[in-house]
Amino acid sequence: MTALTQFDRLEASGLWRAAPDAQRRDVVVSLGDATLTISDIKGEILAHWSLGAVRRATGPKVPAIFHPDTDPGQTLELAENEREMIEGIDRLLRAIDRRRPRPGKLRMTLTALAVAAFAGAAVFWLPEALERYTVKVVPAVKRTEIGQTLIGHLQRVTGAPCINPQARAPLDRLARRLLGPDAAGRLVVLRDWDGQSAHLPGRFILLDRAIIEDHEDPDVVAGYIVAEALRAAERDPLAELLDFAGLRASLVLLTTGSLPDATLEAYAERLLTLPQTELPHDTLLRAFAAAELRSTPYAYARDITGESTLPLIEADPRAAEGSRPVLTDSDWVRLQGICGA
Known about the structure:
Elements: E1 10-17, E2 25-31, E3 35-39, E4 45-50, E5 54-56, E6 64-68, E7 75-78, H1 83-99, H2 105-120, H3 127-137, H4 140-158, H5 165-179, E8 187-190, E9 197-200, E10 204-208, H6 209-213, H7 218-234, H8 237-245, H9 247-256, H10 261-271, H11 281-290, H12 296-302, H13 310-314, H14 329-336
Parallel strand pairs: 8-10
Antiparallel strand pairs: 1-2, 1-7, 2-3, 3-4, 5-6, 6-7, 9-10
Helix pairs in contact: 2-9, 3-9, 4-10, 5-14, 7-12
């Protein structure tokens, strides 16, 4: 969502309630291009809301009260003095609503298309063909929502994602440098994970905190991001999810526009144990060249001896001129403290 670039990384103070019987808490609210992040004053993330699923309960009145459409008991209250944030959220919600199919129309259209496909061609009875069709028609807003839900399930095992407020802007700059101008909010640093990197629907890339904390060269974490983005490009993350969930999940997503929460929870648990797919060295080298990034630091991070990654060292596309800068020194220092207080 890039409807309002002037609201990128807008922050405000608010009052958050996790449930109707819970005590309200002072929080910091951060407005991204597709999400609303709610953190406590120490920077610990309390909730991630997809803007596509946010509703305003008070109409035009202030203080403004917002809630997820599936959880009206969880509320965020913004006072009159936070009008810039209120207007930013309202305008983004209107922009999303203009792009959203009218109520019932998406479900009816997808259902009709599915029925017509089944009736018109026997090939659509095959699970693989149905999965391809589902992946093709699911919109970006729904993919982001699925990715956000998976992150919520992951943090039950890994803890809340690391997001020291001072590291928030450097992390977004790193995302834009490597993934494109609309990639802010797409990098997620996990606090307690034995993996290295993974990807989710909605263009989210997961990173183990050790990749950032244990290396002095920012080209290392940049290399992991480039490699993971390449894996996501080679196989659609939503297709990977539907492979795991099976034929019924594709049918449910087509006809209702959502996936069962139990399915997403099970997939999140599986993601934490999946081994990384090995990428061909020549494919990696082309990706590093396109990103104007040295491959040698990443190669030694993967194998300290360099034996198994020797082609990435010997054919480093930026060995002579070096990488186009990934982050400034000050940004890198702040980013290395992303899991700190």
